[in-house]
Amino acid sequence: MTVRDKVLQAAERIAETKPFDAITFAEVADAAQVHWTAVRRHFGGKREMREWLKEKQEARDPALADTKTRVLESAASVFSEFGYTNASLDKVAEHAGLSKGAVYWHFSSKQDLFLAMLEGHYERQLRMLPGQIERVLQAEEPASALAEWLASQLLCLESGEADSMLFMEFLVSGRDPDIRERMSKLHRGLLSRVAELLLELQRRRYLDDSADPYSIAAMFDALLKGVLVEWILDPRPERLRSLIRTVSRTLGQGIVVKR
């Protein structure tokens, strides 16, 4: 049996009785009777190992995936009701009608759970973006349609007030380096996908091609967060809508090619 086979089999055996996110290199190495560096060499990193173990666990027991969905759905309600700071995994477990152990099986901390919710939100955004951009391109006046789309994205702040506040609360409270790295990876992934769509707009000569598309995406994201902060400081709806109109019009005029 190769070292790789020993490592993989040992990891799977441990995963039969222990949550994937609680398994360490040292445990796998001890079970496989190899040095811990051999485990790292075959998995690449702790996060990669745990993702692999997670897939194995859910494939072996589909009920785990169903339980995870229940936890995420309950978490959305709990975070919305109590805010990020006052929410807890205990409250999520109670809302879901599950034991605390069932929640901790999937998520090691409140930060981990909230980040999983955020990942789902980002994934939904990415699935919707291509269709939204295509509708802009097919409009009779793409420049106006783009400005309207920008405004609609900003107006989501008003309709999703609780979610926006939760995001800011999470952003300023997270100090765990691993969580911050995952957050950064999510953020970069979203901006990269938006940049790909902006690049296509540039190729079709709808947007000024002198600007870097990733920088445009980052600029819009920064504006979105800036509008959110301004709204927190001055929550008058009419003020928010006026600001959104100004931002979307100014941004559109700056990057849309005049025809």
Give a written overview of the molecule.
The protein is mainly alpha-helical and 259 residues long. The chain folds into 3 domains: 55 residues, Arc Repressor Mutant, subunit A (Orthogonal Bundle); 44 residues, Arc Repressor Mutant, subunit A; 146 residues, Orthogonal Bundle (Tetracycline Repressor, domain 2), CATH 1.10.357.10. The chain has 13 helices and no strands. Helix 4 packs across helix 5. It is globular. This is TetR family transcriptional regulator. Keywords: DNA-binding, Repressor, Transcription, Transcription regulation. It comes from Cohnella thailandensis. InterPro entries: BetI_C, DNA-bd_HTH_TetR-type_CS, Homeodomain-like_sf, HTH-type_TetR-like_transc_reg, HTH_TetR, Tet_transcr_reg_TetR-rel_C_sf. GO terms for molecular function: DNA-binding transcription factor activity; transcription cis-regulatory region binding.
